[in-house]
Amino acid sequence: MIYVYGSYQSNANEFTPAWSERIERSQFGEPMKKVVVISLDGWKLGNAAAIASQMTAIQQAFSVDDRDFLILDDDGGLFYQLRKDDTLSGIKVIEPPHIPEARGADLAVRGHYRLSLQAEILIPNSALGINTTFNFTQTVQVQGGGPIIVPMICTTGPPVLQRVAERTPFVAIQSGSFSSYSPNALIPKPLWPAARIDSRQPRVTQSVDGAARTMRYDFTWDYEFLSATPLTLG
Q1: Burial zone of 154 (CB within 10 Å; 0-12 exposed, 13-18 middle, 19+ buried)
Q2: What region, left, alpha or beta, does residue 76 occupy, with left being phi > 0 and alpha being psi -120 to 50 degrees?
Q3: Which end of the chain, N or C, is less packed with Cβ atoms under 10 Å?
């Protein structure tokens, strides 16, 4: 087998690949994307000068991110592919080519190296669910209910504090935001719909996220409430 990274191509059968994948879930527990890490243990053969030249070439090739990565079998057929256009944020070199250990005579005929790549890939079917949200935040502010006390300025003597109202209305603001890859994501409903006094609709903005050109939706909302009785949570 050989591997290809951008325009760089390895020698035949000079490496051993390893893969690892982990699933990242939304705040509601739904799978959204997988993080793929590809590690290569390889070796360059030849005399010291040839090994040094080959190591320089591979280090230059992997000095940049976002190149397509392919593994081809002995007949030139495609065995594995990781293309930057299929990822959320490109293909990153998280462990540049390096010699993990130097053992004297080995370096004269065999240069061992190691490198790792990482990419995030959207899980297309699951990630379109209505609960696939991330960066979720919501704030609820409640005030009011107490008396109104104002200072009365006197022509002589110190100011006098006067209670002008025994009770004040309860006022609350519910605001928040989150992002999703689904345009149908669930937006939190007003906590006290009967006491709501505004008519604003939740807002959504669209943007393209990452190398995969995946549409991302950012949702925000602000609700205002007014009540003569306490506004309580839960």
Answers
A1: exposed
A2: left
A3: C
Q: What is the pLDDT of residue 129?
A: 55
Q: What is the pLDDT of residues 128-137, one digit of tens each?
A: 555 567 888 9
Q: Where are the domains of the chain?
A: 2-127, 129-227
Please state, in angstroms and rounded to a whole number, the distance separating the CA atoms of residues 13 and 5. 15
For the segment 191-205, the average pLDDT, to the nearest whole number, is 93
pLDDT tens-digit series, residues 68-94: 999 998 888 999 999 988 888 889 999
Long-range pairs, 103-109, Cβ under 8 A, ≥24: 107/48, 107/51, 108/47, 108/48, 109/45, 109/46, 109/47, 109/51
User: What's the pTM value of the predicted model, to 2 decimals?
Assistant: 0.62
Residue 128: exposed, middle, or buried by beta-carbon count in 10 A (0-12, 13-18, 19+)? Answer: middle
Q: Distance between CA atoms of 218 and 208, rounded to whole angstroms?
A: 11
**What gap in Å lies between CA 85 and CA 216, rounded to an integer?**
16
Looking at the structure, give the CATH architecture of the domain made up of residues 2-127. 2-Layer Sandwich (3.30)
